[in-house]
Amino acid sequence: MLCGLLVLVSFTVLTWSAPLLSRAGHGCVETPLRFTSDGTFQISIFEDLHFGENAWDEWGPQQDIDSVTVMNEILDAESQQLVVLNGDLITGENTFTSNSTLYVDQIVGPLAERGLTWASTYGNHDSDFNLSRYDILGRERLYRNARTSQMVFGNDSGVSNYYLPVYPSNGGSEPSLLLWFFDSRGGFHYQQTDANGDKIGQPNWVDQTVVDWFQQTNAALVDQYNRTIPSLAFVHIPVNASQALQTSRGIDPNHEPGINDDYPLAAQAQGWCPNGTTGTGSACSYGGQDLPFTQALTSTPGLIALFSGHDHGDTWCYKWNSTLPGTTVAGNGLNLCFGQHSGYGGYGTWTRGSRQVLLTEGLLEQVETWIRLETGGVVGRVTLNETYGVDRYPATVDTRSECVGCSYDVVSDMPGTA
Ligand SMILES: *[C@@H]1O[C@H](CO)[C@@H](O)[C@H](O)[C@H]1NC(C)=O
Ligand SMILES: *[C@@H]1O[C@H](CO)[C@@H](O)[C@H](O)[C@H]1NC(C)=O
Ligand SMILES: *[C@@H]1O[C@H](CO)[C@@H](O)[C@H](O)[C@H]1NC(C)=O
Ligand SMILES: *[C@@H]1O[C@H](CO)[C@@H](O)[C@H](O)[C@H]1NC(C)=O
Ligand SMILES: *[C@@H]1O[C@H](CO)[C@@H](O)[C@H](O)[C@H]1NC(C)=O
Ligand SMILES: *[C@@H]1O[C@H](CO)[C@@H](O)[C@H](O)[C@H]1NC(C)=O
Ligand SMILES: *[C@@H]1O[C@H](CO)[C@@H](O)[C@H](O)[C@H]1NC(C)=O
Ligand SMILES: *[C@@H]1O[C@H](CO)[C@@H](O)[C@H](O)[C@H]1NC(C)=O
């Protein structure tokens, strides 16, 4: 019923996209996600699309057009059942109050056009003085193919915290897989300024209310189905453990293939003090507030991997299987993965692309994943199984989208050629 209502609203508000919506084949929020008849389920992750930069220039709108082209090329090259928009859909510091969420229409255009269904997490750039992540959700929900929702309602919980069950191909009503979506917040509060007239920062970690909801909801599901259901998780900003793995263990190009240019990477709770303020100036580098979330992740049996964006120059997966120096949380084999910078907005010129995740029913301990580039190629194809981290793979070549007028030296930027 709610779904029908949303479609009606969308026809009146989004006049231009009405034909797209009427062609949208599946994905009404009431239609469950399901493994296909060949027993697979594929996810395409777009992250850091950063729509809406410099609307007043020529290059801003042009890079949004280029980002839509990236999405079209990747969607055509792959056969996905779900698209995940893993944060920083829009660059909020560049947008105007009156129309900042209209960029959602451009972003989901290629999805609605194909009848694809999608689920978002929001990133730090999705909250700013002129952009509200609540309003992004509202705009998304005008489309019947949107599965993004909000399941935690604390003042400080963020918005995009929810889960989606994926059901078996045989029509069964017990989920085969759970997809968890977490909101790592960040950016600035909507239409709020402090006594000095400055924008007010929003904490950049997954809130304790969300951690509590995750653990309670997961426990209830384990109870209901009397078993552990395998799961994947998505969050925009990675946890500090990713940085600790990167700096203390090192990313091996043949064991964790991927670009590793953002070093050290930016993680949750960066720039915040342990007391929950940002201090003055750059008083604190890391406040530790992501530890309850991290602890919850590693103590959730069946959680196979966490996928993040945020660090455009990192694209690897690391199997975290041990205690790290200086940390209290021990890895349990959880894979911490980045995808690929998908948008022309945002920093960096790494070849745009999208991480693919292919799950096979009954074989969820062998998750296949690779990065499809806008140029058509595939890099970093690995299997996240028991021996990931030990298995040998070809290294990923560090390529850039375009070099005409690039400000960097393309040759010395390529590993192995300097
Ligand atoms: C929003 O408004 C600005 C200023 O009028 C304009 O340049 C921009 O194209 C608009 N963006 C959208 C998505 O409509
Ligand atoms: C917010 O948008 C208004 C117009 O809607 C614009 O005048 C202002 O500069 C923007 N503010 C910020 C902080 O981006
Ligand atoms: C949430 O914020 C509102 C408005 O600032 C406040 O009245 C309310 O007490 C807050 N609720 C919680 C649970 O903190
Ligand atoms: C739960 O599963 C266990 C085996 O894993 C079984 O022994 C038990 O009977 C099950 N309980 C219910 C209520 O089905
Ligand atoms: C929080 O901690 C930082 C760093 O130690 C300090 O600069 C700041 O004054 C503290 N703020 C409060 C409100 O305690
Ligand atoms: C956070 O990561 C850094 C390495 O980048 C590490 O030194 C530190 O111990 C980590 N902190 C925690 C609490 O995990
Ligand atoms: C994991 O996958 C790799 C690549 O397909 C394969 O070589 C390896 O044998 C697999 N390990 C296990 C334990 O199945
Ligand atoms: C943990 O993974 C590393 C490679 O990432 C591997 O060398 C090591 O043997 C693994 N340790 C355990 C206990 O599985």
UniProtKB/TrEMBL annotation:
CDD domains per UniProt: MPP_Dcr2
Positions of transmembrane segments: none
Sequence ranges assigned to domain Calcineurin-like phosphoesterase in this UniProt record: 48-312
Gene3D superfamilies (UniProt xref): 3.60.21.10
Keyword annotations of the record: Signal
GO MF entries: hydrolase activity, acting on ester bonds
A GO CC annotation given for this chain: cytoplasm
Signal peptide positions (record): 1-17
InterPro entries: Calcineurin-like_PHP (IPR004843), Metallo-depent_PP-like (IPR029052)
Protein name (record): Calcineurin-like phosphoesterase domain-containing protein
